[in-house]
Amino acid sequence: MKVTPPNKKLNTGNKNVTGYAFISPFLIGFFSLTIFPILYSLYLSFTDFDMMGTPNWIGLENYTRMFTSDPTFWKSMKVTFFYAGVAVPIRLVFALLVALALNKVVEMVGLYRTLLYLPSVVGGSIAVSIMWRQLFGNDGAFNSILAAIGLPTHSWLGDPGTAIWTLIVLYGWQFGSSMLIFLAGLRNIPKTFYEASSVDGAGPIRQFFIITIPLLTPVILFNTIMQVIQGFMAFTPSFVVTNGGPVNSTLLYVLYMYQRAFEYFDMGYASAMAWVMLVIIAIFTALIFKSSEHWVHYESDTK
């Protein structure tokens, strides 16, 4: 009796169909909820669209108006660069210091990690932003504490010079996710390196700069990129705590983009702003990656 070998091409085809069937919900969601909105926003950035009628093609007019005749755009850009430039280093430094402290803890490490991570879980919520607004309001808890100890109170959210700093403090307070990543990196550094350097007479400070920092640079790179992106995309604190005021001193870029889209109903202009921000983030990410060639060290490096 002659046995007919199975058709390998047919079996392979069936497996491919089955595989695509399993991932089809993801593919449908990805293309309909991610790819299509991205491409549609790119199209809208070249149109005049108020969300009521049909988009009217105007070419590069939105981009031209943005860079040449919109001072509020430049104001929001300036505020955002200052916010990200100050808040991101503060969060990273604070996260690293807390991670270094936790790395020395032996007992109840899980509890400490959970408690310190909580601000990152709830910190970006509207509820916490409302709490922050109440805390630093004219009659808030912070001014009450100052008055109780005999110090002068201040309008922290009403003063253009201090309002942005309240948002920076809120951003720095949400250090939990970066702290956990730093802690994981610290736990992966072999203790033998520290033991060998101790024999050679290196103290804790010298060990930190010649062992901890170099071996932690890949983690620093990752955290820096993620926090820079998050800093440029900050929205909720500015929207809820100060609503961009006073006198636009806390008008972050994404908040202004939101105002153009949903208060002025200028969706084409807002879409153009979104693509400008995408380019800015891409440039900063590329620059950070390029600079990492000179300061990031990997265990596999043979240099």
TrEMBL record:
Chief subcellular location equals membrane
Q: Which UniProt keywords apply?
A: Cell membrane, Membrane, Transmembrane, Transmembrane helix, Transport
Q: Which Gene3D superfamilies match?
A: MetI-like
> Which residues span the membrane?
20-43, 81-102, 114-132, 163-186, 207-229, 235-256, 268-289
Indicate what this protein is called per its UniProt record. ABC transporter permease
Organism equals: Halobacillus litoralis
Biological process (GO) annotations held by this record are: transmembrane transport
Location(s), subcellular? Cell membrane
Q: Which Pfam families match?
A: BPD_transp_1 (PF00528)
Keyword check for Cytoplasm, yes or no: no
User: Which GO CC terms are listed, alphabetically?
Assistant: plasma membrane
Instruction: Specify the domain of life of the species encoding this protein.
Output: Bacteria
Q: Does the keyword Lipid metabolism feature in the UniProt annotation?
A: no
Which SUPFAM superfamilies is this protein grouped with? Answer: MalF N-terminal region-like, MetI-like
Where does the ABC transmembrane type-1 domain start and stop, copy by copy?
77-288
Q: How does it sit in the membrane?
A: Multi-pass membrane protein
Would you identify the family this protein belongs to, as annotated? Belongs to the binding-protein-dependent transport system permease family.
* InterPro entries in the cross-refs: ABC_transporter_permease, MetI-like, MetI-like_sf
